[in-house]
## 1
Amino acid sequence: MLTLSLQYEDGQTAIEQFALPLAIGRDADCGLRIKAWRVAKRHARIEMRAGKLFLEDLGSLAGTALNGRRVIQHTALAAGDELVVGPCLIRIQGDVLDDTHRSGAPEDGAGVTIDPVTALASGLTTSLGRVNAGTPERNDDTSLNVVQRAKVLSLRVRFHQALIKEFDLRRRDIAALSDDDLRAEARRVVHRLVHDDVSLPDWVDSAALITEVVNEAVGLGPLEPLLADDTITEIMVNRFDEIYTESAGQLRRHPAIFSSEQAVLEVIDRIVAPLGRRVDESAPMVDARLKDGSRVNAVIPPVALRGASLTIRKFPARRPTMSDLLDVGALDPHMAAFLAVCVEHRKNILVSGGTGSGKTTLLNVLSNCIPEGERVVTIEDAAELQLTHPHRVTLEARPANLEGRGRIDIRDLVRNALRMRPDRIVVGECRGAEAFDMLAAMNTGHEGSLTTLHANSPRDALARLETMILMAGMDLPLTAVREHIAASIDLIVQQARLASGQRLITSIVEIGGTESGRILSQTLFQFEPEGTACFRGCGVLPESLALPVLVQAGLGPDTFGQRTPWQPSSAAFALERAAVLNGGAAPDTVM
């Protein structure tokens, strides 16, 4: 017998066992019958040869895909392989079994043996069972055989549906209940349903089952314990039965799964609906945030071919400060003092870096250096900045509604911010035409503004700014664009993430006008990884700040030529492992 996990495009799932050889197709005599126009009458065949499983495509028009590649002739199969036949995703669950393992949980508790690697690849759920027929109690996933895990999954679906029926939305106004009251009511109902069910197997952990059903019905399902785990810094749902987490800088497959594709879609809707956003086939991508500020991105079909995908970057409760960045070696004390005095004296700063290099973290830290008496307006596509400044206004862009109207871009918000009497404007990220309006604000009485963009070096950042200004539709010569940039930006702070995962500032560059149509720049500080890694001043005094101002801040002429060995403290790495700082775990915690 061969155990297969079946997942259909409409969200239906099943785990079944088949005799070999197994024919797959539309014909009634096929062992695995899939009724769909993309499936041939006899589409493919799985059989045993010389002790190994082999897959053969029988010449179907749509073809058979194995692990993302189309199968032409005979191909050997292994546990965890994934086949796509028409609308059905088929996963090989484990080794071939003899007929003695066809029934449910055996009386002797032996069950179907699955090694941990196969159990992890299967993606089946969680720690809901205890095999207690003469064996020690075990809560890990491998203590349940394939049939038992399938039974647990079906129980979750059944009790979820029973809970919805029990609430009877036509008679019970659950919208009037608070989140806590709704969760308490749901737990009470599920607790009664579970304990009244006489058919519940003895090996099922009823308390864990109740918790998972309630989480999926009124919460975020299997994501709830992951969000509560401080050691997990990022959660990635590739599809309903495939969840990965980042912990201690490493990606790991988590055994928890959703009960169905529809359950993932419902969780995504619970996240985005309170923010006034939507996600459907016409708008299949959305950025959002959780109540604690954690960043959320969701993509659903038809864009996501394997099913709804959800990515959550968790934000810690305590925000990093400049001293935290110093502790973990993201910069040296001279660079920290220089950036602080630049923010205080209203220099326009552009934070540049790649994805995940920590631009948002640094922007938060720099924003907290703004004097308290100034009015700050923050503008973001999805609100992520969490300033401690007392006098601030937070603006967020908005997508179009169902009629395609009401869209508000970052560019619109930047223009509106100019009428709000801001002392500083902080734009979370410049991605397009809003760059022109941002630079215009910096150059027309709103000095000291901050923004970020994606670029791999300061020179690339300037080139990207030129491109984004041209995207604004301004019919300007390139020389005028460069003069506009040079007059608006004072400093570029380049962020990077090293191969080890450490995030730090690699250079601080001052913009010094234009000459012969080129933007002039000089590097003030830079990180040197070769040999004994260090932060080094380049021996050049900044032109944007007077020497008395620098001396008053403790930055004499000698400061800009000193070397500081790069030695992150052990305490900093302890903070990283504890996921105290933004970005998560060591070595990816800071920035």
Note: Confidence is low (pLDDT under 50) at residues 97-143, 570-591.
## 2
Amino acid sequence: MRWPRWAGLVAGAGLLLFPVGGTAGPAVAADGADTPVTLVSYNVCGGWNGTENPCRSLLAETPQAPDARAAAWAADAVGRAGLAGTDVIMLQELCKGQYDALLPKLTGYAGYFASRQAYGGCDAWGPDSALGQAVFFRSATPEQVQGSSVRVTVAADERLAVCAKGPVRGRHTFACSVHLSKSTAAGDMHELRDHISANAGGASVIVAGDFNRDPAELNPALTAGTPVTGPLAEADAADDEPTADWGAPDGGTPRYTRKLDHAFFGTEDFHTPSATVEDPQLARVKDHALLRARAFPRRPVPGDLTGDGRPDLLAVRKDGALRLYPGRDDGGFGSAQVLAATGFAGAVVSHRGDWTGDGREDVLARIGPELYVYPNLGGGALGSPVTFPHREGRWAGTAPRAVGDVSGDGRPDLVVQGGTGLWLHRGADPATGPSLPHAALAIGGAEWADGGDLDVIAPGDTGRAEGEPDGPDRADLWARDRTTGKVLQYRSNGTAALPDTGTELAGDSWPAAQRPLAVSLGDGDRDGLPDLWVTTAYDAQTQQGGDLFFRPATVSGWGAPVRVGSGGWGYVESLS
């Protein structure tokens, strides 16, 4: 037979902190990788008093009551600066009165404001004299936004980086609004980097703000990132000065002399960042243009836990250890990483799909009677397990596996081999956290029952056979008959039952007696076809076998086997 093409699945102490608020808009479903995440970063110069320093809001001296002045400023900020519709908004040198006036005008946003100091100039906007920074998330509720801040101190000049975690187009994002000192040395970059590493918790990372230095002066300690967050990429329009012909409000000399505001996106989760600079003329300012940036979210690769775009292998050993083998481009794997030294004996482990809404593929494990989600913190590191809030304590005697989106609704699903057959459990929106809100659907008969002759293999969306029209992106299944060794393909019927009979995939057969374990991680050699990995039985008398072989798919069947692991695989209990 001809193989179908495969399409991938897929606080700091002493700070003045203020709660989030605003009117929440409708939830936004996760967009595809072709829709960029948008950002505005702007130093609004809200707190300067007097007229000697030109960094001062143009409305600050208008003869109005503070609340009316703040309302007029907020309307200007939304209109002139084009804030509405932007996914993430970061504002620096913002007074609390401005924040309180702006948030209600940003319909559908939730925000977080933090301050390290009171400032007299803030009395222009209301009775609260707190001067700080804010982060706003579009299509978020106050409960979804969690703030944290870090003091950045060099000598006597203490500054603040204000960070918040919130949803951005269906994925958890950790966004930091930065305002650094002109005299700051490299230490502040390390403080900021360490804060992100400690608090991002696997979320996608965005950093933007007023760095008070030219691009060439930015410290590589920030852009290098951490093993958890990965490196950050700058999204500047250019590394030189802003447009030189932007005139001052009074028609005098150019308003901007240097470009000191920048935006960075975590490269594990975003690509192709870009930015432009604009002048809304909300302030009398020397060096702060509004920075409008964007970057494209990376489309997850099925089976990829490390974030490098290659599917990875999980192995449960007979001593209960869980190991991660990072994938290469040739169907082989790098050196093993021990994720857990014990605790997984007898577990049913799988990884296909983002269950926590952070854009990373997570690990599911049925251990005893419970089903857990282990959040991917980045690079394959796993966080503390989370119990599914449905069917607690009732998973014993079943084999639940994350196989991708079977139903075609864009959300990860489970298929479960139970005592009576194969069942589909549909997942909820990942942005709301792991959940199985729908009733289970029977999609396979008794031949699929746990402990029977069929091994469930998850190749992903295998596409459509040649000559048939393209269908929705839905995860299909393979089944390995443990007795005959035949591999059968079952195309997804969405929420309906699978076909009664699968299509036999041409090529060799692998009975369980000779090939104990068989698994598909998706496309292991980047040729667009789902591949297979099998182990060989270990012979104690000859002390041979126990190897891992890669079986690449071809358009006509299976390619020649390639040994990608020698010895020791007979001690492995399961693969996923």
Note: Residues 6 and 528 are 5 Å apart (CA to CA).
## 3
Amino acid sequence: MPTYSYFYSRTVAGDDGNVKTHKFSKGSPGLLELPLDVWETLGRYKLLSRVLRGGLSGSGDVHHPGNIVFKLGEKGSGIRLSAAVQDFNQLRQRCLETGTLFEDPEFLAQDSSLYYSRRPDRYIDWRRPMEIADDPRLFVEGFSRFDVQQGELGDCWLLAAVANLTMHPHLFFQIVPEDQSFEENYAGIFHFRFWQYGRWVDVVIDDRLPTYNGELMYLHSAERNEFWSALLEKAYAKLHGSYEALKGGTTCEAMEDFTGGVTEMYEMDETPPNLFGILLKAYERNSLMGCSLEPDPNILEAETPQGLIRGHAYSITRVKYVDIQTPNQIGKIPLLRLRNPWGNEAEWNGPWSDQSPEWRFIPDHEKDELGLTFDMDGEFWMSFQDFKHYFTRLEICNLNPDSLTEDDLNAGKKKWEMSVFEGEWVRGVTAGGCRNFLETFWHNPQYRVTLEYPDEGDDKCTVIVALMQKNRRAQRRMGADCLTIGFAIYHLEYPDRLPKPLDINFFKYNASVARSPSFINLREVSCRFKLPPGVYCIVPSTFDPNEEGEFLLRIFSENKNNMEENDEEVGIGEIDDRVKERPEPDRNEEKVRDFFRKLAGDDMEVDWMELKEILDYAMRKETHNEGFSKDICRSMVAMLDVDHSGKLGFEEFKTLWADIRSWRAVFQLYDRDGSGVLSAFELRQALNSAGYRLNNHILNILVHRYGTKDGMIAFDDFIMCAVRLKTMIDIFRERDPDSTNSATFTMEEWVEKTLYS
């Protein structure tokens, strides 16, 4: 069995209808129709955002949060902010009515918006565009890759992505909404949209920009009065908390945030033999591509004799087999067009560079088709062989299906098929670590992918798997580094015969058929695979167990893929035979019944306080004489209180007592050392033994709600879990007699049942 290893890498540029969904669907007005697992989630732990968890599909007719634009910080945006949620249209209208220019209170024109780790070394003057140039415009004669000029900030990784973006108007205006300008309804306010972890987020800014000696300090256009690029950079800085947060990164990250695509990274010393074919396919699908040279540790952005800049991010703007005619032969040569985001004379000076003699072998009609120019604009051509020799890293951003327009498809562009799932690693529950830690590895989230159709002209399926951890760049100021993450892929030869989720025995005797190249502390780990048609299970994980974080798992394939969580359906199962057959003499049973009759009085009913007295007496050993909390006792009453009297009769108490004894037997079965606590890793098995079938989403919530900081479950909290589970499932099943796995509630019923339980 292979052992995983990992490494740290800080090298950065410049310094389906079949997909299971968790969602609200509306029935008749005033009714909520809920799948059982969502009912479970909402009923036991009121986290409405959890409804958005689960399968998201980029194809077919399933609509998901990725198709909706959220305001920054809005509930459902996936970004938690203490600041106010800002609506661009409302704020602009208010400014127009009052005749004032917008000043953003959430991203102030002050030093803290520039840096989080230090103070500026000089005075920074924040100016509006009309204070920088005459006749300011958002665009001067449209927009192009030549509008992007680097300033003092080490974010050429971002610039390379912006330059690429300008070549795709549909993508560009997805980021830069067209409802704003300096000419019409100008109020000093602008907004931009970025993809963040499966959702589009709208970011509002004012137009005060940092300057020194009257010049823009950071990203700017070659035209002094053009400001779209500077404003876009400010919005991106606000999204991440400061301009400094943008220092150092990979073009992959920015390209994903501009498109919602999936990126691949290739090191040139270990490229696949079909790399040019991969580049051609990427260009056919409108993929955004960037590349860079290994930086010189002694010189910042050192220039090579060939005119290339080390540690600098370039964008690839064309990939083509070009017709060539030499005196001896006619054929095709693989060429690439690249661009230095500085947009100046710093260009490649080798073969196929501007004015190089090789171009005389290219027919005129081919030159016209290429739009060949030889300006000092930072753009140049080079051969594929030279590209592999001189560059050290390649990054490709494959666009999701929503990013292609009808015009793209009509023009012969192709699209990927995509599946997306959100998940999290929770200490002691689903944070199992890598395969090195076999005892806990199987607790990680698992995802089953079915590949039915091979690629055109091939017997295998191309699959890109991308695992992204969320919100780490914005947490830099709090010292949060990226977790070390990776994934493994297992072939399921007989999937219907295997348990859900796959258990420890499966991983003990089955090796992975593919995996991420390494475990690495980057925002995203991705890799391209060629797999035979079949059913596979993907297991994303951190390297070490018990490291907590949220993630996004995305699958791109050339043909349709079906993806679902490889997990149990929520519901009732069989009680463990070891529990049913476990002899448990209860010498206190008669005393407990006598105690009940004594406390119940003439009406033979007990309220929660009287129930607490009984249970504290009967379970004093299990609770270490500390007794049950009032919340548990209230929930126990609610579980069986059909008439909502707030009391239990003797027959109801007998039913409760039988359940509690069964749950106690389960707890003792797994509390092998008699410590009075269970590991959260044991919670699923313990609740399964009690007759409940749960998935990872429910388990994560239970541990968030009832577990300790160290992921342990005490006896009384385990009883509370069981009580709430039984209550919510019983309420649901009462409304779902035909076992359709959905139930309908009026708003009044929804509030009543969730509040009282």
Note: The chain has 22 helices and 33 strands.
